[in-house]
Amino acid sequence: MEKVNLxxxxxxxxxxxxxxxxxxxxxxxLAIYTLTWAANFLLLSSIKxxxxxxxxxxxxxxxxxxxxxxxxxxxxxxxxxxxLHGATSISFLGCFLQMYFFVFLGTTEIFLLSAMAFxxxxxxxxxxxxxxxxxxxxxxxxxxxxxxxxxxxxxLHTYNLSHLTYCEDxxxxxxxxxxxxxIKLSCSSTSLAELLIFTEGSTVVxxxxxxxxxxxxxxxxAIMKMETRSSRSKAFSSCSxxxxxxxxxxxxxxxxxxxPSDYSSQYDRIVSMAYTIITPMLNPFIYSLRNQGVKQALKxxxxx
Length: 304
Description:
By secondary structure, this protein is mostly helical. The protein has one domain: Rhopdopsin 7-helix transmembrane proteins (Up-down Bundle). It is built from 10 helices and 3 strands, in the order E-H-H-E-H-H-H-E-H-H-H-H-H. The protein has helices spanning 22-49, 56-85, 92-125, 130-133, 136-162, 179-185, 191-224, 229-257, 265-289, 292-303; strands at 10-12, 88-90, 171-172. The chain has a 3-stranded mixed β-sheet. Helix 2 runs antiparallel to helix 9.
């Protein structure tokens, strides 16, 4: 079997084995991608220009918008190419660069969601010391740690998979270079790669999720102990958007990476569209439509 080198690359199957209307799907995905850029850019602009939104929660939200824009950009252009041209080639280097940024940005979002849960915990459970505890230094440390740790995590898996031997069957049953499809293409031992995924990889996903769950258990307990209904409603509304984003992100993520290995790759591709295309578009709307501060900032932005 011939080992794939830097010039031979891979072929992305995309949706070429599906029966669908190419023009409709292309137009829909292009519209969603455009809307993702526009919505996240407007959210970033409102956060930057409105003094009212210069708070820790919106600092984290701004970073999340940057992740959403770049995360969708990693996969959508190649997906549009697959829809237009069918199975599309991608170089060896291009494939692993795509995988690196995909894992890097996805992991960054996990860490940022955890930081936002911590922020909501401090704001609701320890309100008197919130400003002291969540100061500028702490915010920068949490965000920079999220980006750096996610980069190292992605580098580890990308380096490991790029040193496997890939053989003549170069067809990736996906619309982007993901970890699982690449492991399936290797004709060398993948035991180390799989061990890293089930140990270090699972830890990176599960520990932040447990941290988020514990934070919200404590938040829920604090909300229930509040004396008035209005204070409980105000406290819950301040974290409801974050909860919706967490459910949306982790729901699709767990479905893809924690399901039986013999599950159809066709379903994988359909569900993958949810968190690579739909979620980055929905996130800014979830935060904007359910947040009076953002809505007021957007109104001022358009009025000016």
